[in-house]
Amino acid sequence: MSPEVLKRCAPAPRPGIVHLGLGAFFRAFGVPFIEDAMRAGGGDWGVIGVSLRSPATRDALAAQNWAYTSVTLGPDGFETRQIEALHDVLVAPEDPEAVIAALADPATCIVTLTVTEKGYCHIPASGGLNMAHPDIVHDLAHADPVSAPGFLVRALARRRAAGLAPFTVMSCDNLPENGVLTRRITCDLARQMDPELASWIEAEGRFPATMVDRITPATTQADIDTLATQSGILDRAPVFHEPFRQWVVEDSFVGQNRPDFAAAGVTMTHDVQPFEDMKLRMLNGAHSALAYLGYLGGYETISQVMADDVYSRYINVLWCEIIPNVAAPHGVNLDAYAASLKDRFSNPGIQHRTWQIAMDGSQKLPQRLLQTLSEAMKAGRPTEALCLAVAGWMRYVSGSDETGAAIDVCDPLAERLAKVAASQTTPRAKAESLLGVRDVFSNELAKKLNGPVGDAAETIWAEGARGAIRRLVS
Ligand code: CS2
User: Fold this and answer.
1) Residue 56 to residues 61, 89, 389: CA-CA distances in angstroms?
2) Fewer CB within 10 Å, N- or C-terminus of the chain?
């Protein structure tokens, strides 16, 4: 007998939030938090999700009236919860006007974003909008946008024309000072269209910074099938994640209009940066290092990498190098934080693919590893494990693994990086050429990294990633 399809239990809450970039992460993290905040503090904060590209999530969720299962995977078993705070899902390329209308609706007070690092269309070195980005060029020329900044600006213009207040824009992506960045790209684009609109957004808009944290691997068909067998109910779009969750939000909203986040366990503060810095450098930095070096070592998931004693010792060395460059948030012990990360990464219930985390490295490396590396070098502190991670990324983006098989490198700069690496024959020369990619490395840092990253590249190419790590930790 085929399992029955998941059904909604209660009517969807009235919407107050539009979310751009509805992937598994926000459905596993933001939507449940918002649902908890509504339960605890009331208010109409249903979420309209927007997929900026594919209709897949909308198609799967439509038959379930936007309800889905959130599955918490602990080391010894799992728990399920049905999430009902999603009100609707729109697919931007099918109907951009419907997205602008939802954003411009007077009921929409907050717009949250998880559009990944590259979705901000910014120049990482300056933080400004990249006016030559094809999506931005398109959005300046057409009324129907394709980019996240394009949707924000078109909708803000409509609100202003209608005499409404702007919505609060809340980035939930792993980027340093994500609030400042989002304000900057929104105002940069608005200025190109209408300088008065830009001034209005500058004065009236709010762009709170956030730190978001919950490990959420992409859902696979096998996950869907297993859940259906175990529960007897077919959910075509469940999300799977670890038990841990942490949300730190800058308490700055237009008209102070927001769900009662604090009642749901969100940390509301005026200074998110120490939390964000700690998480980006210690969690995401270590994640990226393990992703490249682990993938090259032949491991498919992070928990498999962590089960290898050589890698587990490496990660301790890496955190010892990172911690002196991190200012701990008030009341947080960074050694204890590292120990908790080790447990989270080792959770065997979580099948988090090294390949998934390795994606978009050119957009991630600067804030995850290079900022730390630059500060450590300036202060004359150890950097061997950090340099090995950078060399691991270089070996990975060169495009073939240690058996010679092609790697499916998923990165906006993939082609260019592969070409740069292939233009040289020795590992040291490959490393030197890749250090010349200015989108990733500043001139100043590249000069300093040339020697040590060149050494690390030689070892990785000669002895393999695991061999290089063994040498470092023994
Ligand atoms: C990961 C993050 O895919 C990645 O790059 O490092 O998605 C990570 O799992 C989350 O930031 C955890 O909160």
Assistant:
1) 9, 11, 34
2) N
| Both tokens assigned to 105 | 């609706």
User: Is 368 a pocket residue for ligand 1 (Cβ < 6 Å)?
Assistant: no
pLDDT in tens, 81-126: 999 999 999 999 999 999 999 999 999 999 999 999 999 999 987 8
DSSP state of 343: H
Q: Do 383 and 321 meet the contact criterion of CB atoms below 8 Å apart?
A: yes
Mutate to test the pocket of ligand 1, among 302, 357, 362, 368 (most ligand atoms within 8 A of CB): 357
76 three-state secondary structure: coil
- Rounded to the nearest angstrom, the distance between the alpha carbon of 345 and the centre of ligand 1 is 11
Q: What is the dihedral of CA 285, 286, 287, 290, to 10 degrees?
A: 130
From 278, 287, 363, 364, mutation site for ligand 1 pocket: most ligand atoms within 8 A of C-beta:
287
Residues with Cβ within 8 Å of 35's Cβ and at least 6 positions away in sequence, in order, are: 83, 84, 85
- Rounded CA-CA distance 230/218 in Å is 20
Please name every residue paired with 90 in a beta bridge, in sequence order, or none if there are none.
50
pLDDT in tens, 23-67: 999 999 999 999 999 999 999 999 999 999 999 999 999 999 999
Identify the helix (H) or strand (E) that includes residue 82: strand 77-83
